[in-house]
Amino acid sequence: MNISVIGAGGWGTTLANLLAEKGYKVKIWAFEKEVVEEINNKRENSGFLKGVKLSSNIEATNDLKEAVSDKDMIITAIPSSFLRNVAKEISKYISANTIIVSVTKGLEDNTFKRMSQIIGEEIPKVKVVALSGPNHAEEVARKVPSATVIASKHLDILPKVKEVLQTEYFKVYPHDDVAGIEICGAIKNITAIAVGVCDALKLGDNTKASIITLGLTEMSRVGRFFGAKRATFYGLAGVGDLVATCTSKHSRNRFVGERLAEGKSFEEIRKEMHGMVAEGIKTSKAVHDLALRNNIDLPLTNQVYKVLYEEKELKKAIKDLTALI
């Protein structure tokens, strides 16, 4: 089976290496030339997955056409803001039999489209699978026992995708609620930013638990708008990913919240992240706008948005959130 991964961040590199260690020949596309050179010459990706030796079955490239041509499965692991343009570009080179697995978490600004919907619009001839769960790359890459969820409207392809991705340490569970697992993956990042603020301000475990619970409530409200199943929010893609993202030292979104509470500017935070992306920043705007347009009550998302985009003072945001709930 010919497989490629689009995006050589931590998660994309981890999945490429997982597959390569299973014996698949994997092409991985990276935007940065230095990343391609380091993967091919040193078997490392120190900028995004430090300390992990990469399989010789991985070949990196900067050429999108080379990366996706004649592939049976393509994993898209790029930031949500770039997905539509990249999908449009690769659509020229992909056959109708290709399976695309989206592991990007977020909602598109203005359209509020989920990642699988964007791929479906730009490459309508392919079958799309969404993957989401409590999957920190730093742990999966080191074979720490983990689990994930895959979902598609094409249920017939899920057993094959599970077979390709699953290992002894990475369990894959098929699901039929595509909207549910994608909404869970998007909303949990907003909550993690708020939890990061709480931790940096040393507001305590009671506050943190309340914020996580409120995040789960808002996840459910947005999910209902998209027609998601209630049970999905209480599974791996919902509560599982929410807890992992809000409590882990590996969480980029929690990191952003911590640094904001320390008084760091966006530019300072961006430099500290060394090219990594915290999807919750852009997702908070998309979900805030969605809620305004459709009268969905999301007090936590609203305050996170105001802190990120309107420079609202953190203490005022916390006070207003407490009054609203």
Please explain how this structure is put together.
The chain has 325 residues and is of the alpha/beta class. The protein has 2 domains: 3-176, Rossmann fold; 179-324, Orthogonal Bundle (N-(1-d-carboxylethyl)-l-norvaline Dehydrogenase, domain 2). It is 52% helix and 12% strand. The protein has 15 helices and 8 strands. The protein has helices spanning 10-21, 33-42, 64-68, 80-90, 115-122, 137-140, 158-165, 178-200, 205-225, 236-247, 252-261, 266-273, 279-294, 299-309, 314-324, and strands at residues 3-6, 26-29, 58-61, 73-76, 99-102, 127-132, 146-151, 170-175. Strands 3-2-1-4-5-6-7-8 form an 8-stranded mixed beta sheet, with helices on both faces. Strand 2, helix 2 and strand 3 (58-61) form a beta-alpha-beta unit. Helix 4 (80-90) packs parallel to helix 5 (115-122), helix 8 crosses helix 13 and helix 9 runs antiparallel to helix 10 (236-247). The N and C termini lie far apart (51 Å).
> Number of DSSP strands?
8
Strand order of the largest sheet: 3-2-1-4-5-6-7-8
Give helix % range: 40-55%
Alpha-beta content class: alpha/beta
Mean pLDDT reading: 94
CATH level 4 superfamily of the largest domain = NAD(P)-binding Rossmann-like Domain
Order of helices and strands: EHEHEHEHEHEHEHEHHHHHHHH
Number of helices: 15
CATH topology (fold) name of the largest domain:
Rossmann fold
Strand content: 5-15%
CATH architecture assignment of the largest domain: 3-Layer(aba) Sandwich
The residue ranges in which pLDDT falls below 50 over 5 or more consecutive positions are none
The biggest beta sheet is recorded as:
8 strands, mixed
Oligomer: single chain
**Which radius of gyration do the C-alpha atoms yield?**
19 Å
CATH level 1 class label of the largest domain: Alpha Beta
